[in-house]
Design a protein that fits this description.
Helix content is about 65%, strand content about 0%. The chain has 6 helices and no strands. α2 packs across α3. The mean pLDDT is about 80.
Amino acid sequence: MIWGDNPCLYLAKAKGLKKVDFSAKVWPETSPKAAYARWTVMRGKADKTDRPQGVLISDAQCMAEVLDEDLAYLLLRAKDRVRQKMEREKETVIEAESSEGPEMDAKTKAAVRKAIKQR
């Protein structure tokens, strides 16, 4: 996908909306620049946890309305993408553990498993 794994951005792109235009429609009460900044922060990851920021249900509902989509549908797509990402990470760990290359030490394996569980 052009804009990453975010289903809202993917659908916005499919409907011909640019990122700035999409964010301006989601938060029409603010300037387009402020709306885009808000969207950028929301898509970013927290510094300490490296996890995505949370999204308020009210903001998610506004996004769904702008896209003419059902909020439940967008949540389902996002959930499926998270599952797929976790499966890919799990497969990567299994491949790394079973490869004929240099073995991971116990500390590295534990760190990888911990990172996967946190996501």
